[in-house]
Amino acid sequence: MEKVVLASISGEIVLKSDRTRPRFERRLVNNIIDAFRREDVECNRVWIEAARLYVSNCKDEESVEKAVKVLSRVFGIHGVAVAHLVEYSDLNDLAERVKEIAGEWVRDKRFAVRARRSGVEPFTSLDAARVIGAALYPLSQGVDLENPEVEVFVEIRGNKAYIHRGMSRGPDGLPIGVEGRAIVLFSGGLDSPAAAWMAAKRGIEVDLVHYVLASPLSIIDALRVGRKLARFWLYGYRPKLYVFDFRPVTAAIAGMVENSYAQIVLRLAMYVVAEKFALAEGYDAIYTGESVGQVSSQTLKNLYALTRARPLNVPLIRPLAGFDKEEIVSLTRRIGVYEEAAKTREYCQLARGLVATRADPDKLLREYEKIEGIVELASTRYIEIPLA
Ligand code: ATP
Ligand code: MG
């Protein structure tokens, strides 16, 4: 008997056409192999068969447990479990093998057997559930199909069967790499890693762009959070952080731009530099952590003014548009970056006073044009730091 990992893949992948699905599945397997390599998981076989993903040839039980943990952070995985792999000769033999493994699980509990077969076996799933259920019954408190305390899953594939207690939840989504590349404007606060995660979940290779607005110490925060995110979630490629020095831009804004427009002009400057960089480096979109109405610079009127003042030639995607702060916080907790992101300080002290909440597009453009040359200059130099 061997312990292996059994996972289900996102319904979205399963439903793809015969032309697309193999490409998505290949990418998923490659990303998992990359994840195992980066996380030192010593399991040597990963494959997909009939919408199930298998990991076997693991060095020891610890590697199996570790593989389950890592798989629960790979986009494209719906559920994952440690499974006991057995071979059997006939249905009675199978019931015996299941009893050896699952006897302890059902002891003094109300249980249910959930059997699935591949189709080549000379019995039905219902037969299997009945015979296995009868074998476990004497150990248990009885069968309860509606509301069991324990479920015993038996996935039968020819003369082999995978036995487990149910799958823990994966992130779903699409395998990173099937959907192009994007940059994420990344301050390192709570919103930007959540936005990056949302992008990656849709199969996008994300790289991060950080603007140093005041102290260069902000790079350390962005790096700390970016590395955590990359280590936990960004598999299948080598994610990077690009750092632009925006101090000349913030200085120019502070000196030349009308106070109530300072935040919005800064925002526009960030977009423009990101647009130029995306076009030059072959990124298909820009993501930000903006949420409609969260702060005065992000009112819908201001987002409107930003587009009217200076339309962008690259899609600007705001995956958190409809989230409130609590939802964003609970997402960052779930994805394991909350502790790191909450430590990030606010560095930019621009415009402490009143911020325009209904910026006028023409005026915004006029204010922006005052500093355009400096933004242009800031866009020409950056440094690149690998995150993984
Ligand atoms: P966050 O929690 O991500 O810092 P926030 O709630 O502080 O966001 P803002 O500071 O208004 O909100 O920023 C909104 C978005 O603008 C961020 O989510 C990020 O995408 C982008 N952004 C803000 N500051 C920077 C920066 N210094 N470098 C790169 N992107 C930034
Ligand atoms: Mg911020």
UniProtKB/TrEMBL annotation:
Its EC number is 2.8.1.4. This is Probable tRNA sulfurtransferase. It is an enzyme of class 2 (transferase). GO terms for biological process: thiamine biosynthetic process; thiamine diphosphate biosynthetic process; thiazole biosynthetic process; tRNA 4-thiouridine biosynthesis. It comes from the Archaea. It is found in: Cytoplasm. Catalyzes the ATP-dependent transfer of a sulfur to tRNA to produce 4-thiouridine in position 8 of tRNAs, which functions as a near-UV photosensor. Also catalyzes the transfer of sulfur to the sulfur carrier protein ThiS, forming ThiS-thiocarboxylate. This is a step in the synthesis of thiazole, in the thiamine biosynthesis pathway. The sulfur is donated as persulfide by IscS. GO terms for cellular component: cytosol. ATP binds at residues 185-186, 210-211, 267, 289, 298. Belongs to the ThiI family. Keywords: ATP-binding, Cytoplasm, Nucleotide-binding, RNA-binding, Thiamine biosynthesis, Transferase, tRNA-binding. It comes from Pyrodictium delaneyi. Residues 65-167 form the THUMP domain. It catalyses: [ThiI sulfur-carrier protein]-S-sulfanyl-L-cysteine + a uridine in tRNA + 2 reduced [2Fe-2S]-[ferredoxin] + ATP + H(+) = [ThiI sulfur-carrier protein]-L-cysteine + a 4-thiouridine in tRNA + 2 oxidized [2Fe-2S]-[ferredoxin] + AMP + diphosphate; [ThiS sulfur-carrier protein]-C-terminal Gly-Gly-AMP + S-sulfanyl-L-cysteinyl-[cysteine desulfurase] + AH2 = [ThiS sulfur-carrier protein]-C-terminal-Gly-aminoethanethioate + L-cysteinyl-[cysteine desulfurase] + A + AMP + 2 H(+). Its main location: cytoplasm. Pathway: Cofactor biosynthesis; thiamine diphosphate biosynthesis. GO terms for molecular function: ATP binding; CCA tRNA nucleotidyltransferase activity; tRNA binding; tRNA-uracil-4 sulfurtransferase activity.
